[in-house]
Model the fold of this input.
Amino acid sequence: ETGVTQSPTHLIKTRGQQVTLRCSSQSGHNTVSWYQQALGQGPQFIFQYYREEENGRGNFPPRFSGLQFPNYSSELNVNALELDDSALYLCASSRDRGQPTFGDGTRLSIL
Amino acid sequence: RKEVEQDPGPFNVPEGATVAFNCTYSNSASQSFFWYRQDCRKEPKLLMSVYSSGNEDGRFTAQLNRASQYISLLIRDSKLSDSATYLCVALGGSARQLTFGSGTQLTVLP
Done:
């Protein structure tokens, strides 16, 4: 059984740029949630996709957007990057919004 | 006020010690609760679920008190391999999303 895989592992961007992070959900999972974890903090919920529809959103501005594809993989897009966007971005997949499995994360640094 | 608040830590304890972590949550509508463990620069992993009746898994015991909105984790006979950050987590909301505390760092010393 393939787990949750995220790409890239690390990424460096500058302020104002745009970034796309990718997540392949675990086999049999149809729900993907994204979390942002700043240094020294717990992960914070960004949004969730269930069967290709956004199913809930945390307290993040509209420049954070996402997509889920028919194979249930997902993308997180962030526009107009700010220094505070530097964080570990975690993707978690589950079946029918059940107990999630986390990927290894993408570490994003903004210069 | 954060939805899930934990002991600030860090905790530095000798091998074999018993250590207790506490956590409070503010959203009484939260449905389920968990403790997650996160190793340095890794993803969080589910340690155990937390129930009002208590939950024990080897050296780990978790307890939920819904009346006081309080969650605890007790680790007995600490091992070096227990060194990690422990995250208190509530599940709820329209997306059944996880709300994490800031985490408490534990270092078990030889």
